[in-house]
Amino acid sequence: MVNSIIKKIEKFKLLLKSLVYQGNWNYDNMQGTGFYYLLDYINTKHKIGIAKELLRKTTGYFNTNPFLITFILGIWCKEFKNNIDPNYTRKIYGPALSALGDRFFWHTLKPLTFVLSAIIVFYSPLLSLIFYIVFFNIFHFYFLYNGFDIGYYYGRNAIEWFNKIKFTKWNTVGEVVILFSMGIFLSMLLKIEVQNLNMSILLIFAIVFLLTLLIVKKINISLALLLYTTLLLINMVIRVY
Amino acid sequence: MQKKIIFRVDDRLIHGQVIEGWIKYYKISHIYIVNDRIYGDVLQELIYNSVLPDYCNLEIFNKKTFRTFFSGEIFDNHTLVLFENIKDLYDLRDLITEKIYINIGCVASREHKIEITDTVFLDLEELRKLSELREKYNIYIKKLPWDTNIEIKNFYTFLKEMK
Question: How far apart are CA A112 and CA A178, in angstroms?
Fold first, then answer.
């Protein structure tokens, strides 16, 4: 557990401010202005003593995943405290956390949340909507809220924390869960589509799906979706004729 | 894509678009970063290795070591070679063959640079070098594999006009 160096209420305010972090995104400096905006807030609140000139330099070209921005702010402040050029570390961590964040938030968490919500729709559309908002934002807010402390605690070695929680593995696990959930979702669709469905058909679907995974040796959502849809159509054609 | 070796200029080197775009799309298993500054930087190597998928193998070279390595290397799988700037690519131009697909991803805006596209900003020297390379090879601006290739043409005319 990482001890907090800023008050909880201020961590919460930083989280709220980070939600508008990309408000001035542009092709010239990308998220540079947003970074300045957040760093200026920390500097003012905690009297870190960042000189105006150095602070101004942070408006320069910068881009990362917005959900992991508070980590970089923490790293930046730690590097500044240790008299190491903080903008150099920022330059390294910006693209690196962009890679980690994009992969997890956009390509794993978002489709996972979507599929799970789609399943819940069968029971309650309202619950599905609530689930979508809550489930996605649990991760989103957790990272934004705790990022500064973790970044500050680990400093330039913050990547160790991501390795410690096996963050890249989350994507692998997430993809499996997405596929499994997609299977459930399509099976439920199938059940609605075809009355008095024989459960053995679903079993065949699952076996074929697993075999496909073995053959291609790679999890592929599009392939799985295509497979299920094809089987669904075959099943319907058989039933019609 | 027939060409298995991709040379890409992107000042962010490894980032979200590279991992979710290029690596995934072409199932790239080998990535080489060619950069004199990063070569030997243990922290950066650790960070880049940590963010890559398990099936990707990363090696970092400086221009000198890459020249020796690349000359004798045979590539079976799709391979991505990342350069931070046009100059590095230009310095290794003798390694470029018709088998290599060259693209420019992102070169950030700096003072005195000219906007070529929304993500590529070059100064006159970079433009000159790129034009020279373009005379011999096809080079495109492309953020993601499924984007349309943006042609780099008539830069020489532009450079003459600038004079």
Answer: 5
